Amino acid sequence: MSTLPLKAVSRVWGRFNELTIPYYLRVPGFKLYSAIFGVNLSEVAEEDLHVYPNLASFFYRTLKPGVRPLDPSLNAVLSPADGKVIQFGTIENGEVEQVKGVTYSLDALLGSVKPTKRAPSIEGFSSPDPKETRTKVGEEDVMQTEEEFAKINGITYTLPNLFSNPWPKDNKPADMPADQSTSPAASSEAEVRADLALGDASRPWWSPASTKIPTTLYYCVVYLAPGDYHRFHSPVSWVVESRRHFAGELYSVSPYLQRTMPGLFTLNERVVLLGRWRWGFFSYTPVGATNVGSIKINFDRELRTNSLTTDTAADRAAEQAVARGEPYSGFAEATYDGASRLLGGHALKRGEEMGGFQLGSTIVLVFEAPTGSGEGAAQAGFKWNVAQGAKVKVGEALGYVEEVQ
């Protein structure tokens, strides 16, 4: 497989998907595709299939409001996409089980070093956005909504200096990642409450660090088939602090390959989103695959992967390595500091659309949650609500954090 030009084929396929289909062929063509791959056309927001000019737009279709209700429990971790649960469980000694008896390391999936942070303007405070142009009055209003978001959802935040000067360009370290943040939705910033702080210690940077109750790292892998709804959503209310783009391979991520190719997800191109939720560490990784035209992140200015017309820092670094005759296994990093000076990242509420695939692929969730082994007046534990091979839809509960008083 490594000798096949899968990236080139996938880019050409992505371009082919964007070719305009003759008007009179659209309805029969999309109905045939739906019959072959099991697309439920009754859920599609736009009932007139003529409005989709090409395959890419049909793959990236939206759904009717209300067809993906969210689980009512605020303690639920929701399915990020429509698809099949390939694997789930706990992470032991930094190893994630791909299939029974085959594992890969969390360092290989997420990166072995802790995400780079921008230096604060004053100790304990977040750095101001260099492009910030809001007035102080408007800024105070935004800070209040962001603080409310943090309070509701149990997420820690810092109180920045509203009257400090913008971060000086010349003072910014050259090796800091670029800020690719966009403005978050106001409603998303209205939902989070402070209660967690990621600890850094001598342990791996992703290691659980809660001191209030015992926690464990959990993971879940959801595979999207060609007929599934291809947009993906936020499983919980959380803050995305940084992004890593690994310009890897584009092997198929079919269930068969997942069973037969060890470390598949650590070899493929992927976008690792890193942040925190009320219980600790949270990561969300859309994984590329053969013929995935692109991975889109709605709140990232730069990122659109595997495209003939766009380029990313990771793509450029990979091309330079190939030109030198060297393998490239690194990543390009960006932060979302500018989205919120209070939260230090981009706030997402549960169920909010985050981006999508142009064709099917896989999402890997890795998150910290209570182990359920704590003693005392209050204890909490995470309980799975799915089975291996189960079909899930956006908004359904993968599991719950059970709190017992």
TrEMBL record:
Topological domains (Mitochondrial matrix): residue ranges?
A: 1-2
Biological process GO annotation list?
Answer: phosphatidylethanolamine biosynthetic process; protein autoprocessing
Q: Which InterPro entries match?
A: PS_Dcarbxylase, PSD-B, PSD_type1_euk
Q: Where, by residue number, is the active site?
A: 82 (charge relay system), 233 (charge relay system), 361 (schiff-base intermediate with substrate), 361 (charge relay system)
Query: What does the entry report about post-translational modification of this chain?
Result: Is synthesized initially as an inactive proenzyme. Formation of the active enzyme involves a self-maturation process in which the active site pyruvoyl group is generated from an internal serine residue via an autocatalytic post-translational modification. Two non-identical subunits are generated from the proenzyme in this reaction, and the pyruvate is formed at the N-terminus of the alpha chain, which is derived from the carboxyl end of the proenzyme.
Function summary: Catalyzes the formation of phosphatidylethanolamine (PtdEtn) from phosphatidylserine (PtdSer). Plays a central role in phospholipid metabolism and in the interorganelle trafficking of phosphatidylserine.
Q: Which NCBIfam families match?
A: PS_decarb
- Record protein name field: Phosphatidylserine decarboxylase proenzyme 1, mitochondrial
Source organism per UniProt: Massariosphaeria phaeospora
